[in-house]
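Q: what sequence does this backbone want?
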């Protein structure tokens, strides 16, 4: 079977057992938070840092902005290509604190006590950011408004919606889905979907 250049390039970008969609399915556990007043929203940077920091929404939005284009891959089997994001680079966020040498992992905290974990090196990749905009529009509540993580080289459950805190830890603490059977790392190209994989 012949595949044109566009099809073969697409195949190279899609991990095994994923189906490409142009839609952006809404998947989450728990309620969707709606914010009427962002003056009460903050982002806490804490854990293995010299001093914990609380950033207001305005302080986050005043930070240098980054635009990135990437593909996202959901553990449930869909992939969405060519997403345009705008937000704050995770490397930029980390400039707000001084990490202690023993900090090796990150636990992202979201609304309703939802968490997800990842190694610090994954959190600080050039492609990782905290996004407020997708495809030129502000995130909707269903997709993580006002701020969500985007860690595109891992399955998309690692890109937590509605984030409120970033905890820096010495050990790799499992987050919500990881405690419920999802893989601790979640690399799509290795199909690290579940803890028994």
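A:
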């Amino acid at each position: 079977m012949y595949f044109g250049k566009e099809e073969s390039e697409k195949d190279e970008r899609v991990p095994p057992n994923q189906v490409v969609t142009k839609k952006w399915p809404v998947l989450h556990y728990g309620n969707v938070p709606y914010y009427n007043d962002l003056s009460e929203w903050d982002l806490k940077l804490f854990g293995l840092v010299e001093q914990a920091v609380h950033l207001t929404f305005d302080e986050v939005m005043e930070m240098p902005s980054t635009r990135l284009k990437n593909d996202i891959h959901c553990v449930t089997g869909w992939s969405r290509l060519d997403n345009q994001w705008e937000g704050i680079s995770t490397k930029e966020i980390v400039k707000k604190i001084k990490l202690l040498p023993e900090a090796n992992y990150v636990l992202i905290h979201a609304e309703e006590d939802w968490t997800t974990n990842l190694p610090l090196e994954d959190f600080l990749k050039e492609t990782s950011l905290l996004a407020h905009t997708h495809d030129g529009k502000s995130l909707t509540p269903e997709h993580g408004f006002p701020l969500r993580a985007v860690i595109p080289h891992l399955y998309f459950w690692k890109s937590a919606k509605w984030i409120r805190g970033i905890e820096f830890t010495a050990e790799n603490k499992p987050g919500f889905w990881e405690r419920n059977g999802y893989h601790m790392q979640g690399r799509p190209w290795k199909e690290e979907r579940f803890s028994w994989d």
